[in-house]
Amino acid sequence: MNYFRTPDSCFEDLPDYAFEPNYVFVSDLEGDELRMHYLDEGPPDGEIILCLHGQPTWSFLYRHMVPILNAAGYRVIAPDFIGFGRSDKPLQRSDYTYANHVSWLASLVDQLGLRNITLVCQDWGGLIGLRYATQATDRFARIVAANTGLPDAKDVEDGDIKSVSERMRAHYQTLPVYEEPRTMAMGMMADSGGMGFLHWVKFCADAPVLRVSDVVRFSSGGQLDDDNAKAYDAPFPSNESMAGARQFPSLVPIIPDNPAIPANREAWKVLENWVKPFLTAFSDSDPVTAGAHVRFQESVPGSRNQHHTTIEGVGHFLQEQAPTALSAAIIEFIKDNPLPT
């Protein structure tokens, strides 16, 4: 598998990100290896919090939360998914599959020997992390789902799968090529057919220029200064480095015949019997995942009697806009649900 490796020089002097890099090597599933980066901060014997980013960000997203969680006594592991951050970036969009990412995360956790994990997952961090957690239940003690979901076309009858899938693909073909997030969002909001997410897929796949900082800034109400914007863009100095960022939305299994649907349905079967502590920490101003917390709270037994939180005035990237509030919710959750003795 051919890949791009972002030069170390791109990561010099990033604001509030003076963390030592750590790496493991994971199989590229074609007979070779890829280098996967992760942060490992805090007391070595502290309880483990595994923080997973989404698309199109990287572990820089957690830079303000890591010190807070460390100060509370926790060891934070924050990887960069393959294709993001300091991890290697396969060059072909076809190299990125949902199953590959679950496998790569599993390899990292296995190599580090992590146990009694508190999973903190946002955006694609949830799609990947929840799938893996339901496959390796013995490794996880708690889960925090933040602005994420686990799509499985639950509301589509089996007999309608073909027709609904064809209709969604036909609709996708009618969408324009958006050049920046704002016009894409306008198209998404104007789409009354329940297919708004396809606008995001189209934007990431076909926009002439895709900048991570533009997405984060737009989704954070414009609250991102130039230095931090440059840091978000640092791992992606060329178009060839952007294959993963462009492909991820296309992998979200919202079209009912997506090959990931059966695996996600199996994951939901596990979650519907998950009695370990489960917390939702969503924001109130994220149009992408709005309402997804309801299914978690209603379907996951471990979510009952938890102090679920809604962070007000915050968009999709809670870690960027509300790191203190999200960290406090995580710390309270862990303390309220101590490990069995």
Structural key phrases:
alpha/beta, 341 residues, 38% helix, globular, 2 domains, eight-stranded mixed β-sheet, two-stranded antiparallel sheet
Descriptive overview:
A hairpin with a 5-residue loop joins β2 (22-27) and β3. 38% of the residues lie in helices and 15% in strands. It is globular, with a radius of gyration of 19 Å. The chain has 13 helices and 10 strands. The mean pLDDT is 96. The strands form 2 sheets. The chain has an 8-stranded mixed β-sheet, with helices on both faces. It folds into 2 domains: 3-154 and 259-336, Alpha/Beta hydrolase fold, catalytic domain (Rossmann fold, 3-Layer(aba) Sandwich); 158-251, no CATH class. It is α/β, with parallel strands linked by helices. α6 runs antiparallel to α9.
Strand content: 5-15%
Question: Mean of the pLDDT scores?
Answer: 96
The major β-sheet equals:
8 strands, mixed
Oligomerization state of this entry? Answer: single chain
Please write the CATH class name of the largest domain: Alpha Beta
Low-confidence stretches: none
Element order, helices and strands? EEEEHEEHEHEHHHHHHHEHEHH
How would you describe the shape? globular
CATH superfamily of the largest domain: Alpha/Beta hydrolase fold, catalytic domain
* Derived structural class: alpha/beta
CATH fold annotation of the largest domain = Rossmann fold
Give the number of helices. 13
Helix content: 25-40%
CATH-scheme architecture of the largest domain: 3-Layer(aba) Sandwich
Query: Number of DSSP strands?
Result: 10
* Rg over C-alpha atoms, rounded to the nearest angstrom: 19 Å
Distance between the termini: 45 Å
In the sheet with the most strands, the strands line up as: 2-3-5-4-7-8-9-10
**Count of distinct structural domains:** 2
